[in-house]
Structure to design on (392 residues):
């Protein structure tokens, strides 16, 4: 860890990412940057910003309550591997991947009831039907359903996604209502937490958080049923959210954008790439942990932009404006060498586009410890042609 302009920073970052967290720090009471950080919408992915009496909708981001859940099954890897192709086919045909998708299986949940707190807001009430039909769908970008085995050859399911079109709609409404600056390298939108708009945002964000939890719960339960094995352990965290917390004797709204809560003893699931291990970790108490506001990474972190990976081609003329740095052959070779059964995914999600998770987690060795290492066996993501303007 090093201090840059009095901001604790873990790992190595591009200058634009450092400048972005510096801009955030001008309006925040505290700030920190995790080792998987990269440029984000107004606040960097991997950024942590804390306010005593304010909250930041652009800090939480468009995918409110995006998060990770991992569940361990009562099933050995020796039963999974011989069936992996058929199982991944079942997952691909049962779970909905992509932008704007509806769940093929209607899901009932208490948080969808009209009288549940939060649906009476102008920002949320028009979105209730959309929320209902999308509950339990995955989305696009780096959102996934993965199957792993750990060091004891036990099977785990890992998922990564958030509040879908509902959360995006809530975020968009509040950013517009607050007249937020649009763009990446701008000051984040900050609201007085006790103002009417701030209190409404907290209610809307909280509802989106419940929605995201319900979706990840449903997907993990559904995949476990496909595998025919009971769940014996669950680990679940948001990483695009704001929490009211005490740090050094003071109360803050702590906004974590692509950063996982990691209080002492708190477990988290952190994904790597589709061809490399993920980890189950837990927070430890240390001076560095306090400076990180008890936060850690949420993934490996990008080193290559999506358009940099895919290249840019003029849709009308077919002229290549920028050649691709990653090809499908490169992606397939990585996946094949790791013996991973892949469904979907574009080259912009290739391991070539990411940092190495072991190096990223090592940068936080004074704040977390690894409990389990998860080796990917099967990976399912949205296909290459899914368009999403807010992929992180």
């Amino acid at each position: 860890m090093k201090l840059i302009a009095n901001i604790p920073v873990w790992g190595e970052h591009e200058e634009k990412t450092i400048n972005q967290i510096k801009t955030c720090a001008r309006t925040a009471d505290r700030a920190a940057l995790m080792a998987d950080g990269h440029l984000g919408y107004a606040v960097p992915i991997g950024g942590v910003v804390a306010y005593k009496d304010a909250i930041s909708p652009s800090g939480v981001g468009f995918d409110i309550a995006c998060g990770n859940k991992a569940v361990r099954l009562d099933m050995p890897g020796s039963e999974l591997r011989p069936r992996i192709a058929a199982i991944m086919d079942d997952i691909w045909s049962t779970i909905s991947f992509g932008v704007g998708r509806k769940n093929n299986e209607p899901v009932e949940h208490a948080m969808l009831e009209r009288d549940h707190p939060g649906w009476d807001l102008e920002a949320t009430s028009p979105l209730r039907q959309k929320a209902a039909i999308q509950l339990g769908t995955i989305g696009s970008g780096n959102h996934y359903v993965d199957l792993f085995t750990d060091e004891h050859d036990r099977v785990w399911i890992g998922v990564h996604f958030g509040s879908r079109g509902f959360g995006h709609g809530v975020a968009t409404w509040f950013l517009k209502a607050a007249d937020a600056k649009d763009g990446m390298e701008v000051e984040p939108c900050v609201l007085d937490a006790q103002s009417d708009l701030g209190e409404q945002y907290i209610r809307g964000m909280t509802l989106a958080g419940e929605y995201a939890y319900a979706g990840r719960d449903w997907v993990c339960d559904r995949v476990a049923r496909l595998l025919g094995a009971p769940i014996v352990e669950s680990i679940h965290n948001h990483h695009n959210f704001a929490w009211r917390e005490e740090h050094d004797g003071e109360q803050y709204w702590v906004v974590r954008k692509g950063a996982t809560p990691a209080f002492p003893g708190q477990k988290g699931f952190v994904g790597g790439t589709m061809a490399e291990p993920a980890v189950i970790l837990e927070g430890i108490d240390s001076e560095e942990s306090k400076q990180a506001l008890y936060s850690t990474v949420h993934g490996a972190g990008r080193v290559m932009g999506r358009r940099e990976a895919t290249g840019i081609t003029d849709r009308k003329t077919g002229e290549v404006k920028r050649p691709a740095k990653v090809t499908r052959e490169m992606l397939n070779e990585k996946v094949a060498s790791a013996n991973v059964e892949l469904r979907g995914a574009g080259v912009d999600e290739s391991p070539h586009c990411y940092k190495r998770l072991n190096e990223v987690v090592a940068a936080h060795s004074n704040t977390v410890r690894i409990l389990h290492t998860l080796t990917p066996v099967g990976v399912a993501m949205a296909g290459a042609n899914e368009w999403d303007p807010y992929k992180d």
In short: The CA atoms of residues 99 and 388 lie 7 Å apart. The longest strand covers residues 368-383.
